[in-house]
Amino acid sequence: MRVLLTVEMDTEKANKAITGKTLPHTMKSVLDRVKPEAAYFGAQEGMRTGFIVFDLKEASDIPSVAEPFFQELDAKVSIMPVMTFEDVQAGLQKYGSN
Hints:
By secondary structure, the chain is of the alpha+beta class. The protein is 46% helix and 30% strand. The chain has four helices and four strands; from the N terminus they run βααββαβα. Helix 2 (23-34) packs antiparallel against helix 3.
């Protein structure tokens, strides 16, 4: 299932991870594991934030994706199913056939 992972990093922890040069390693380890379709970074509500779209194979994969962000960056993490426009169209066709 395609999901959007949003990672809002605690400013103090992220600052330490940047100065300690561990932030790139944390991000790369997760991105290498999930092989994202897209990954974007910016600020949301004043926090460094990552927006990562990837295919979540199984719900049991969630801890291995989220825990590095929780433990190393004290991040707020959310995972939300998302669709492409083609997915929406296919879903609406199924809805219309009922």
